[in-house]
Amino acid sequence: MKIDKVLVANRGEIAIRVFRACTEINLKTVAIYTYEDRYSQHRYKADESYQIGENDQPLRPYLDGMEIIALAKAKKVDAIHPGYGFLSENSEFARQCAENDLIFIGPDPNVMDSLGDKITAKKIAQNCQVPIIQSNTKKLSSLKIALSEASIIGYPLMLKAASGGGGRGMRVVRTPKDLKLHFDSARNESLNAFGDDTMFLEKYVEDPKHLEIQIVADNHGNIRHLFERDCSVQRRHQKVVEVAPSFNVSEKVKQSLYSYALAIANEVKYNNVGTVEFLVDKKDRVYFIEVNPRIQVEHTVTEMVTGIDLIKTQIFIAGGYKLSDKQIKINEQESLSTHGFALQCRITTEDPENNFTPDYGTITTYRSASGMGIRLDAGSIYQSYNVSPFFDSMLVKVSAQGRTLDGAVRKMVRALKEFRIRGVKTNIHFLQNVILHDTFKEGKASVNFIQETPSLFKIRLPQDRTSKITNYLGEIIVNGNSDIKFIEENKVFRIPKVPDFDSSLNYPEGTKDLLTKLGPEKFCAWLKNEKQIQYTDTTFRDAHQSLLATRMRSYDMLNVAESFAKNHPNTFSIEMWGGATFDVCLRFLNESPWSRLRELRKLIPNILFQMLLRGSNAVGYKAYPDNLIEKFIETSWENGIDIFRIFDSLNWVKAMEPSISFVRNKTDGIAEAAISYTGDIMDVSQSKYNLNYYTQLAKDLENAGAHIIALKDMAGLLTP
After folding, report:
1. Domain membership flag for residue 259
2. What letters, b where the CB count within 10 A reaches 16 and e where it falls short, cover 326-344?
3. What is this structure's pTM?
4. Which of 10, 82, 151, 566 is an S-S bond match for 88, by CB 3.0 to 4.6 Å?
5. Digit-coded pLDDT (tens) for 186-216
6. Range(s) of the domain holding residue 448
7. Residue of 28, 45, 239, 566 marked active site
């Protein structure tokens, strides 16, 4: 072969992908990098690597074709692989390579001129009788001409960069106002990305699927297709998930696409690899949109279902081999087939909940996925790597393969769940929502799937306990614990002993089961007729109120909870929640009292839970609006509270009535109204707080709707 040493005029994962292919066929490799990219992994994957550009130029040097060519000649390089993006579709760069006796690993410059420019490509498609979308006939050299052409074609329109790809410079234009707003910004974006600000307009096809055909051609006139990829799942015209082959697309449409793609490739005598892209509307009408004369980001899925290494194929073709040669092994079209399904997800540092704004910063934790059917193509991603704002936000491409699409999706979901990326925001959980959605799994996704499916953005982020614990331990080790003023070395903590219980046995039935079975009214009737004394255990509450055991953690309570529930199922209730719980959890323990309630409920499902509710004060120290008290009671019941022990320190029934009503009307719980008792009803000298006072108070609370009346001894000296 004419190639012995390859320079990759690119960065990140595609550069690494090419270097790996070169290594497999024993070619020497050269990497280039900018100062901003000096820690990027691609420079370490090559045999040699060299900085290009000045230190204050993070991106522009990757577009400086002459500097790259000069470096290649100086290092005795035989061929340059452009990857995708940057100079990959620049025919002038390909010519400059040829003029300097360097092999450009890609199509011939004349082919690139024909197809790389989307306007010229559409004319070629028309010559081949391939259906196209109506577009402008005059060059869009100004906004005035663009507005004139738009009025001829008719809105809605798609404004595109003629030399572009990856969604850059692309806008949907529905009104003249939109065109005025986006025309200059799209031109500037195209110029910065591709060095060319030529734009064109075409009729916008509503809600189509986006399918592309992978073609491969040698320099001897042999052209084959490697079937199709479904790239319909997009946002901002950038592909998010790709599938090969397409699912739920008719064979008739597929055969039309193959035929059209080969016709266009034959018309221009295509060489090397490329992709012919089409839109297919809901009536199965096909429209040619463009040819990408380069390797695609999503080439991995085609490789997985065909078994053909497209990068090595590119190199061998550039080296002069025929498709049928043993180095490539692509024979007649009939000999080619696909096996199973593959899909690719692009993990990026974009924030789906913030309009996909790219995030950047230092990766503090990284754990990748692996396993059967999973392929990773990563650029630079490792712990302590700094994600730069100057480059593409993609971290790693994850590809999954299965015998069925469902099998591939299952593997992908598993792989995405295995990833741990901390320090920057990612789209991992958004991707899971996408591929688990029925529309995607049924092959019905169109290019508008993401923007028309708001449920994809209902993302449940992980708690990231590991990072929080690590940060906490680091803070304590370096700065100490502000809650610990000094350490008494002679203090020894006892190891708590949890009473034995059989974890394999079911929970014995208790009062919670009875309340669920009977409902509040019948349960209270049962209780009233019951002769046995019923006991409420307040240990879980007194853990915050007694002098012996203040500020007990949920962790300690949870350790003993199941044992208590199984050893003491005859307990009437457990008072375990109230104002003191909120005060201590939030001010001292940095815990959630709601989480405590839910976790204890799981471990003690058979015994009634009760709380102390300060009437209109709830669990606070001031009066709250009735609607807040109502919602608090309802939410407390939903999370596990059964009995609400409601009191007012002044026995003001009006302050207790709303809470009693809310318990009755908004829950299936029990309202236990408490009388705050003080003094001695046997003392005849008492003129106010006497037996008549407390008797009438009990009647008033019963009339207010209380299920149970309780006596609350305010002084701890209850008499008689």
Report:
1. yes
2. ebbebeeeeebebebbbbb
3. 0.74
4. 82
5. 998 888 888 888 898 988 888 999 999 999 9
6. 213-229+244-457
7. 239
